[in-house]
Prior knowledge:
Elements: H1 3-28, H2 30-37, H3 47-72, H4 75-100, H5 106-133
Helix pairs in contact: 1-2, 1-3, 1-5, 3-4, 3-5, 4-5
Amino acid sequence: MVAAKLVQLYIASAILFFAIDSLWLGVIAKTFYNKHLGRFFRERVNWTAASIFYSLYILGILVFALLPGINSGSFARTVILGMLYGLFTYATYDLTNLATLKDWPVKIVVVDILWGMVLCGLVSAGGFLVATRFL
């Protein structure tokens, strides 16, 4: 895949990621996260750190799920790799917090890991369709 197409796929994946994750965090699960994690939240988001994280995270989806799946021509492989990426990355975050932070809620660990799998699977599926249909 040429560089211009990779950039387009990255941008499409980022748009998908933010649309889906914003719906989850801002609407569907907002009350759940506030109830269980509200005491951990900062007054203001550190947007520099968030921007760096999301830029790298979406690049990870591209490298570890989308490109291998697209190269194999397999939608199912792309989605499975995306879900595994979500499992490994969200489990790293949540299980580390459970191990090191006092009173980190187990409910958050379970829900968040499942959400990471769903989110990355959906972004990978959407990215695959964009790449194979439009790029």
